[in-house]
Amino acid sequence: MGQAPEQEHPKNAFGWAAKDTSGVLSPFHFSRRATGEKDVTFKVTHCGICHSDLHMIKNEWGNTIYPIVPGHEIVGVVTEVGSKVSKFKVGDKVGVGCMVGSCRSCDSCAIDLENYCPKVIMTYANKYHDGTITYGGYSDIMVADEHFVVRIPEGTPLDATAPLLCAGITVYSPLRFYGLDKPGMHVGVVGLGGLGHVAVKFAKAMGVKVTVISTSPSKKSEAIERLGADSFLVSRDQDEMQAAMGTMDGIIDTVSAVHPLMPLIGLLKSQGKLVLVGAPEKPLELPAFSLLMGEKIVGGSMIGGMKETQEMIDFAAKHNIRADIEVIPADYVNTALERLAKADVRYRFVIDVANTMKSTP
After folding, report:
1. For the Enoyl reductase (ER) domain, which residue ranges apply (predicted)?
2. What pLDDT score does 294 carry?
3. d(Cα 207, Cα 21) in Å, to the nearest integer?
4. Residue 42 belongs to what H/E stretch?
5. At 4, is the pLDDT very low, low, confident or very high (cuts 50, 70, 90)?
6. pLDDT at 110
């Protein structure tokens, strides 16, 4: 038997954890490692709630380690730095996203794609280099290697920036990698949730024409008037979809439920790109002829490397891009997760860790 979570490391920590597949979170005492020579320790002020937290606390992907402290949209203020840390100092505003470690020597790591490292260490429910389990940001303190910490520019609100560390980089990276960031291009965004709403904001800031594609006609005014999309398609309306066939350079598909791809591929111009960033639990059907007729591409993308994540945060600060959030106290987290399962949030819950996560004896 290993040590109890609160005795593994010297720094006392407190958070909210799920203990089993019910996914119900409750107060949890554990510990963080001492600040190593390349580590940054920070007081967590806010943590976003991501849809993947929901899957993980219930072990829906089959890789959860309990007890699990979720949260990978973590921001706060530095309280201590190691002797060899060069990028950060006490008092800096910082963030940690989906990963806290990688091998740093493979082909992917060599080109700043730590997110595709075969040995990537996720921010929670993974084994760290020292063999202990990683715990996420639904907690009062965080310790991370400086390589996996991003700087949050002064004047940027911490609460509305937190979700960018997962949702933001998840859509920013494919817009850049697949070349869908050129002014005047026409890009579709499928789904107007936590990912979709920031995809619209980033694409517009890049000078791209944006069409939101949704099953919900009720989201049209929100998409166009509030988020700045240029147009809106109801995916169930065959006339609307038919009229838009062959008009888009690319599509960012954020939907994590099973859905047909063929109508989306039909919206693409020749050599257009459909990029999946959502992760449906069952395989999607991909009709080959729809790709052959027009040399079209279906691709994927998962978050981004650390260099690009910092670039994304800096771009967001420059263009005033923030997530639309509902700030909640820590003890509301189970209700928030229930609401998230029903898509009852516009568009990201963020836990006010600094003011509401109080340790209980």
Report:
1. 23-351
2. 96
3. 44
4. strand 39-49
5. confident
6. 98
β-bridge mates for residue 122, sequence order: 99
List, in order, residues 6 or more apart from 229 with CB less than 8 Å away.
189, 200, 204, 210, 211, 212, 223
Beta-carbon-side half-sphere exposure of residue 200 (alpha carbons within 13 Å): 27
Residue 97 buriedness (CB in 10 A; 0-12 / 13-18 / 19+): buried
Q: What is the pLDDT of residues 93-150, one digit of tens each?
A: 999 999 999 999 999 999 999 999 999 999 999 999 999 999 999 999 999 999 999 9
* Residues 81 and 90: beta-carbon distance below 8 Å: yes
For residues 159 and 152, what is the distance between their CA atoms, to the nearest angstrom? 11
How much is the pLDDT for 279? 85
- The backbone torsions φ and ψ at residue 5, rounded to the nearest 5 degrees and listed phi first, read -55, -35
If you ran DSSP here, which 8-state letter would residue 257 be given? S
> Is 167-300 assigned to CATH 3.40.309.10?
no
> Region 297-308: what's the mean pLDDT?
98
Strand partners, 31: 12
Which ranges of the chain does DSSP label H, i.e. alpha helix? 51-57, 107-110, 158-161, 167-177, 194-205, 220-221, 238-243, 262-267, 288-292, 306-318, 333-341, 353-356
At 226, list the tokens. Answer: 């509030």
- Taking only Cα atoms into account, the Rg of the chain, rounded to an integer number of angstroms, comes to 20
What is d(CA 155, CA 104) in angstroms, rounded to the nearest whole number? 32
Residue boundaries of the structural domains of the chain: 11-162+323-352, 167-300
128 touches 112 (CB < 8 A): no
- Residue 309, SS3 per DSSP: helix
Residue 3 banded pLDDT, cuts 50, 70, 90:
confident
In this structure, which amino acid lies at residue 316?
A: A
The gap between the terminal CA atoms of the chain, to the nearest Å, is 25
CATH architecture of 11-162+323-352: Alpha-Beta Complex (3.90)
- What does DSSP say about strands 297-300 and 268-276: parallel, antiparallel, or unpaired? parallel
Confidence of residue 7 (pLDDT cuts 50, 70, 90): confident
